[in-house]
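Continuing the series of single-chain predictions for the mutant panel. This is the parent chain; the variants come on the following pages.
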Amino acid sequence: MHIIPKPKSRVFQTGHCDITAGLDLRTLPVNFVPGTNLTTTGSGALIPVKFVPGTNLLKPEAYRLTIAPQAIEIEANDDAGRRNALATLQQLAQPNCNSTKNPHTIACQTIEDYPDIPWRGVMLDVSRGKIPNRTKFEELVQLLGTYKYNILQLYWEDCYILEKHPDLGRMNGYYNRAEVAWMDELCKAHGIELQPNIQSYSHVHGILRTPGYGHLAELDSLFSFAAGKPGVYELLDDILGEVLPWFSSRTVNLNMDEAYDLGTGYSKEAVAQKGSHQVFLEHIRAVAAIARRHGAQQIQIWGDKVSAYEGLQEELDDDIVCIDWNYNPLERFPSLDNFSAERKPFWVAPGTSSWNALFPRVQNASENITSFIREGAKKGAEGVLMTHWGDYGHHQPISFSYHGFILAAEQAWNAGRTPLAEFDEAMAELFFGDEHLVRGFELLKKTNLLPSVSTGFKSQTIYSFFDDFFKGLTLVGDDHYPAIPEATFVELHNLGQAAIQEINLVPGTNLRVREFLHAARCIEFTGRKGMLSYEIKQAFAASEVDEYRILDWIQRIRLLYREFCAFRQEFTQLWDAEAVDIGREGALYVFDKAASRYAEAVIWLSRQRVALLAGSPIDTAMATYTSADNYRTLWTGDCMNLWDRAYPWR
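Parent structure:
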């Protein structure tokens, strides 16, 4: 009988409201007139839902929900409060959330509630290859409305085709005026403000790699705009001038994060003369002025580079809000020392930790979300922007971020005070709704806690899944990424196998179950593949090799390849179920490149078999296995190849 977010006050009375008597929450309109009854179609006596002005409700978005045996009353003073009350009522009406054994009744009660943090948003990365289709977008908006979000941003680097710049966005998927109008109306119907989010400094490699735009780059790596170059502001004037009017919102997020190459190329002379602080400030002011000319009334930028320069925040105009991002599971966040609501309004941005992983780093995300929002609230943060990224091809399903979205909704509403154990109980009831899915989720969570799996904002399981058989980074390691030990591969296999068994017991085959099952299979496969790699490498090192063992290994590798091809097909099907096909080829390229690893391993093993039959020595050190020397994938790739969308400074 949980509610997410947890209400500030909840008092139960005797009796129950029988919702089978005519209340059909599926038909509740999103638009309503205060002071009138909301009736529904159906036979029998109707349960009226009456909206009335709130008494003693002084906070924005506050509501009082009173459920009596024969009537339901919603008191609120604004549309947001009424929507929040309806979202709570819809959760209460779920069959598994009632206090009695009768799934068609709601316990009589009075709930009084309001949010601690006024702005609660989600930022969805649509620039790394995955643009949600309309079905998935509707699902997302409904989810955000259910958990009382009021903002949605779609992170754009080059996701548009413009009249003056028709070549932009063609390589990675794009939006246009008509699609934004549809999304905007859908969001407004659910009380959500769709805000434009447009990169205006770094992470613009999609633009700069387009023929005819490279001259606007700071460096040949084609990652950031050249700060101070007139052509940059002419282009941004075209982009913002056409795109901002597509949105009804007058807020725009201009990003400007990770400006690492400032002063290293085109702007080097200006930085030498004026300092990087001043050059960056001038760039912010120039782009902000363009945004204002095209209707922006509030401007957001990330706070990481602003924090790097003492006093820069105070020099920004009053309509510029900094968003401090941090994705680490800390108790204290030093970056928050640079922000205070007494000086300037600011937001905090935790992360879902779902990117660069076969399954989200849930423990990392849960601690990060809870602590960062709690500490941000203490400093007076007026907003939370929950970030979802799709680094290096966006291999994870969008739904793998839902746990983080819902947790952030809970903690933003209650200033980070909700214990994680209490939240987990609520999620099991309201979101998962099936004990087998919950157990499968818990098993998959554990895979990211195994030795050498999590490294920073990455889980090496996904790299191992695509890695070389004998000399892959996950097997040999380096200064940044430790080798995965054999025992970890064994546990990946065991946990994946156990998760598969649990998820297979979930009734039905909806998309969420299919996505969980795919992840479990990939993790189990990764463990089994790693175990075979260790078996072969150790046998050669010990000279315990004969013809029949080699033939056995070849057969097992070929069977793994068959499974790998099936994973590629299943990945494609899951992608198509939630996203447009443009951009999918980037993610599939990693599959196609990794497919060669199976053949190369078999070719080398076959040569060792020939050597054995000829009485020649075998290569116990695998020195002649050189096909992996130039093999890279995901974040270890060659970022200068102009093919992927990786980070050029790593």
